[in-house]
Amino acid sequence: MTLELKNVAKHVGTDVHIHKTNLVLEEGSFNTFLGPTLAGKTSLLHLIAGLEPPTTGEVWFRGKNVTGVPVQKRNVSMVYQQFINYPNFTVYENIASPLRVSGLPESEIDARVKGTAELLRLVPMLGRRPSELSGGQQQRTAIARALVKNSDIVLLDEPLANLDYKLREELRDELPKFFAGRRCIVVYATTEPMEALLFGGNTATLDEGRITQFGPTAEVYKKPDDLVSARVFSDPPINTAAVTKRGSSIIIGETIELPAGKAFQSIPDGPYTIGIRPHHITPTVRKTGRAEIEGKVLVTELSGSESAVHFDLLGQTWVSLSHGIHRFDVGSRAKFYIDMEHTFFFDRQHRRIEGRG
Amino acid sequence: MNKIVNQRAWFFVLPVVLLVAFNALIPLMTVVNYSVQESFGDNVFFWAGERWFQEILTSERFHASLFRQILFTGIILLIEVPLGLAIAITMPRKGPWVSVCLVLMALPLLIPWNVVGAMWNIMALPDIGLLGKSLRSLGFEYNYTRQPLAAWFTIILMDVWHWTSLVTLLCYAGLVSIPDAYYQAAKIDGARPWAVFRYIQLPKLKYVLTIAILLRFMDSFMIYTEVVVLTGGGPGNSTTFLSIDLVKTALGQFDLGPAAAMSLVYFLIILLLSWLFYTLMMRNEAR
Amino acid sequence: MAKILASDLAHSYALDPQTDQNWALKPLTLECADGGAYALLGPSGCGKTTLLNLISGLLKPSRGRIVFDGRDVTDASPEERNIAQVFQFPVIYDTMTVYDNLAFPLRNRAVPASDIDRRVREVAHMLELDGMLNRRASGLTADSKQKISLGRGLVRSDVNVIMFDEPLTVIDPHLKWVLRSKLKELHQRIRRTMIYVTHDQTEALTFADKVVVMKDGEVVQIGTPIELFEKPSHTFVGHFIGSPGMNILPCSIEGGKAVVAGTAIETANGSAYRDQGKRLELGVRPEFVSFGNGGIPVEVVKVLDIGRYRIVEARHSNIVVKMLVPEDAPIPQRAHVHFDPGHTRIYEDGWVVP
């Protein structure tokens, strides 16, 4: 049971919301759509659900063309950012509502509602109305409503964005448990790279209406196809610089020379763009062989266990993220150490170059 | 949404479509039919082409009633919209008085229109009416059955009393939906009440005001009942607006052809002016 | 710039508060030093926004006084207190250009036009809005609009305190990062008193010099980000701050050491404690838990890889311990977990034992 998007594109007037896209989602997979706002995540979700027809291209499900099929005929559930529940129904009725439409016997409905409520820890709330629940509980009711149907496809559009930080964390931890062991295809849209990493599964990075990369999350994270995918999948933002490679070193802006990592020493000389994630730059030397650079400290942010130091490197602001408390005076010059083995190299078309050896 | 993929929706719309067809489209077609024919009673019809339309559009009488109508609608809009908006701004948005104010505002809208006309008719009577007698005691030579100016004054007063509430309630709904944070920010910025009105409330009320003005425009352009009950179109024909003129032609003189033609012209004028007005108000919205 | 003192301040939204629950803000006293950066941190409904609105003057307190620099301002309006506030969603004047938006507060105070021009350009440069001064404010992105909201507070040179009410709510994560550092940079440059309300601990800890942690209308702890991280005085602070939060394990005390699941554990405050039969818990942050030779025997049940480190969940019967393991370090299936004694504390009924 796979979902396929074949050459699907969406145009609204003269705007292109989704460029020609091909995508295959497997049964039982958890897929994260990651990208900034207006990247096209919601549009894609609507196309998969059948809420909107594609301008060109086809949507295939279970080997059949479902492009013109309206959303009521497709077995799809959706959870939104704003906790959408029927305000006049109790939690029990809310969860039961999709089942009542399908005309199941009452005993079956009761069993399924209770089962789903237990999974989402809503059993004590079953008699209440959504207005009497907290944000987290309302969202769990919405998720329960989506799950009880046993749909083939479950779509979640930034469901945790309106929740408090800690609640978001808790619900995020529980979310994979809700879908464990089910055969449905789950698509989760978010702007936070951290969530994609925590869920595992597959990730698609989106930027301006295009899917730039799709694959197992760890792979997309560790081996981005291009600069855009690397950027989308980094929080804090990835540090980049235009460099020239000469021999076994790379030169930044004519003045800074760093040894290229072992895997990259044999790539052809010439201009490249490098990308380094902030946690691969530290103010202390932990491993030998780390390249050293010096920069003027702009601001230090201490978040309890980690220090983020923003420093100026040849007019650009770079960020170093490290464990522990490191204090620097603003304006002072400090030394930072780059892990060159974890540096990404991008060619002139911003495609990533694989290291050799 | 681009395409309608769900065909079942048409079945829900069908009853309404039939009803509208029966009640509106068929009579409309009948009117169009009459407007291009001449009748001599007893269902004998001759083709007249655009003759009635030419007559109407060049007739002095039509021009006069059109002019009166435009003047009336213009005055009405100029008074009711600012007044309604002002009242809405002064109405409380929170607290126990909200429901009281809302009920008071709704009352004039609930009264049947002919009763409104009758009410003002009696109230404005120069000898025994509250309004009429008071004005006369203040020294005004007020008699709405004899003086066109007094008649106009009374009609405008009646309409303002009757319909300003609609503008008020619409604007109130719009105002209530402005988040508190905007007012708080304005307070912090040291903005005076006028600046708050001009830079926060007015821009946010744009859509609501458009609807209010459009509704008042269309309704006042078609005004009939209240005026007929109050003045009957008089004195003379000083308050004979378009609808009244139309009815006089159609029923009073049994001239179906010209009446039908006049109806269509009337309809097209309202359509054109409404469209023009709407486009002008929505000019800045690209999407 | 001003030193702010909230003295015995309490507030209730009910007309006649009877029970504890009716008080949105329970009596508290708080002092903010001149030019300091403060964060009010807590979950929804903890009273942080109420406290912010009381300080800014948008709300009059049911009880207590507010003092700016020795001057009692409890009955003063927000303009009289000379404050600026940035709200959750960008509040801008749609019909005006960016320039006019920034100039608005100054024009209302009859500041001469040449001064207005200078201040507006200065602030626009600080916030990197130079290129947009002549554009209509309504067409910009959310983060630019928030910058304008902030700018309107910065143009006034006499502002006593700038308040932020969850200002990054509508901003994308990537831009959140940028805007957050910009705020910090700004504070270090202009040194005005700033109070920042949020439920996001990362925002609070990176921005503030001192954080006020609140729950259910009460202040639980006030401290620097490092103090809150290393020495939480309540299990709530330990849980709320840190991602993941502190491990809180039920324990008992025996001979000066805490006992969890039959294993004796060294703590920073256990040796002087005498058991009084109350509920005891052991608190240790995942950052201070490591695989070692002594400690509770566990089995690793879950590993979450977030790139720069892994969150490891280890289990011993019904006790779950979370720990952080660096990027390339090995994770054994079965091991013992060692708690750093300097960062392990005993909590009695939720409060840390002195």
Strand-helix topology:
The complex is a heterotrimer of chains A (357), B (287) and C (354).
Chain A: E1 3-12, E2 15-25, E3 30-34, H1 41-49, E4 56-61, E5 64-65, E6 76-79, H2 91-101, H3 106-119, H4 135-148, E7 153-157, H5 165-179, E8 185-190, H6 193-199, E9 202-207, E10 210-216, H7 217-222, H8 227-232, E11 239-246, E12 249-252, E13 256-259, E14 270-276, E15 281-282, E16 291-302, E17 306-313, E18 316-323, E19 333-338, E20 344-346, E21 352-353
Chain B: H1 9-35, E1 37-39, E2 45-47, H2 51-58, H3 60-90, H4 97-110, H5 113-123, H6 130-137, H7 148-176, H8 180-188, H9 193-204, H10 206-221, H11 225-230, H12 242-252, H13 256-281
Antiparallel strand pairs in B: 1-2
Helix pairs in contact in B: 1-13, 2-13, 3-7, 3-10, 4-7, 7-10, 10-13, 12-13
Chain C: E1 4-12, E2 23-32, E3 37-41, H1 48-56, E4 63-68, E5 71-72, H2 78-81, E6 83-86, H3 98-108, H4 113-126, H5 142-154, E7 161-165, H6 173-190, E8 193-198, H7 201-207, E9 210-215, E10 218-223, H8 225-230, H9 235-240, E11 247-250, E12 252-254, E13 257-260, E14 263-265, E15 280-284, E16 289-292, E17 296-305, E18 309-316, E19 319-326, E20 334-339, E21 344-348, E22 351-352
Parallel strand pairs in C: 3-8, 3-9, 6-7, 7-8
Antiparallel strand pairs in C: 1-2, 1-4, 4-5, 9-10, 11-15, 12-13, 13-14, 15-21, 16-20, 17-18, 17-20, 18-19, 21-22
Helix pairs in contact in C: 3-4, 3-5
Overview of this protein structure:
The complex is a heterotrimer of chains A (357), B (287) and C (354). Chain A is of the alpha+beta class and 357 residues long. Chain A has 2 domains: 3-232, 3-Layer(aba) Sandwich (Rossmann fold), CATH 3.40.50; 239-353, Nucleic acid-binding proteins (OB fold (Dihydrolipoamide Acetyltransferase, E2P)). Chain A is built from 8 helices and 21 strands. In chain A, strands 6-7-8-3-9-10 form a 6-stranded mixed β-sheet, with helices on both faces. In chain A, a hairpin with a 2-residue loop joins strand 9 and strand 10. The radius of gyration of chain A is 24 Å and the shape is globular. The two termini of chain A are 40 Å apart. The mean pLDDT of chain A is 88. By secondary structure, chain B is mostly helical. Chain B has one domain: MetI-like (MetI-like fold). Chain B has helices at residues 9-35, 51-58, 60-90, 97-110, 113-123, 130-137, 148-176, 180-188, 193-204, 206-221, 225-230, 242-252, 256-281; strands at residues 37-39, 45-47. Chain B has a two-stranded antiparallel sheet with strand order 1-2. In chain B, a hairpin with a 5-residue loop joins strand 1 and strand 2 (45-47). In chain B, helix 7 runs antiparallel to helix 10. The two termini of chain B are 14 Å apart. Chain C has 354 residues and is of the alpha+beta class. Chain C has 2 domains: 4-14 and 22-239, Rossmann fold; 245-352, OB fold (Dihydrolipoamide Acetyltransferase, E2P), CATH 2.40.50. Chain C has helices at residues 48-56, 78-81, 98-108, 113-126, 142-154, 173-190, 201-207, 225-230, 235-240; strands at 4-12, 23-32, 37-41, 63-68, 71-72, 83-86, 161-165, 193-198, 210-215, 218-223, 247-250, 252-254, 257-260, 263-265, 280-284, 289-292, 296-305, 309-316, 319-326, 334-339, 344-348, 351-352. In chain C, strand 7 (161-165), helix 6 and strand 8 (193-198) form a beta-alpha-beta unit. In chain C, helix 3 (98-108) crosses helix 4. Chain A binds chain C through residues 36-37, 134-135, 164-167, 169, 191-194, 197-198, 200, 218, 221, 235-237, 277, 279, 298-299, 301-305, 308, 310, 321, 323, 325, 330, and chain C through 43-44, 172-174, 177-178, 180-181, 184-185, 188, 199-202, 205-207, 225-226, 228-229, 239-245, 285, 287, 304-308, 326-327.
